[in-house]
Amino acid sequence: MSKATEKIKEELRAMVPPTLYFFVILHIVALIRELMIKGTGITLDTTTSVAIAALVLGKSVLIADMMPFINRFPDKPLIWNVAWKTVVYFVVALVIHYLEHLYDFWKLAPGFAAANEKLLSTIVWPHYWAIQLLLLVLILAYCIMSELIRAMGADKVKTMFFGPLIARPLHP
Fold this sequence. Notes:
The chain is mainly α. The protein has one domain. About 75% of the residues lie in helices and about 0% in strands. It has helices at about 5-35, 45-65, 80-105, 110-120, 125-150, 155-160. α1 (about 5-35) packs across α2, α3 crosses α4 and α3 (about 80-105) runs antiparallel to α5 (about 125-150). The longest helix has about 35 residues, at about 5-35. The protein is elongated. It starts with a helix and ends in a 10-residue tail after the last helix.
């Protein structure tokens, strides 16, 4: 196999865990949003848009993890990197969530400023912050898991989680 093919396979393999995680949590967030706005006539994202968002977030996390500023505290206790990454990812999620709402208003408004003004006057802030708090907890859980896996090694965590894998012969 060529080096390029091997690198692509490695990248895809690394993208699977965060993408699956974000796929599940974004569906949970979408379900909670649906329950919060039931009966308002507002439509929400489809599974396809959630899947695309999960793919984007999965790749974004991998790219962010390669940036030198994201792993600021590799030699300190894990809580340092967990807290730092949670803050960074949460701020990004906060901005993306706001822009997602803004985009919906921008489609109807004559310009950016008008869309932002309309959004600020009509958004249901308790719903917005409830979703943000949920995302904060889910991002924190992701950061805790990823830092533990980084520190302990993926194989050790798999063994701890699933138990020892016993190699059995295919034919007795």
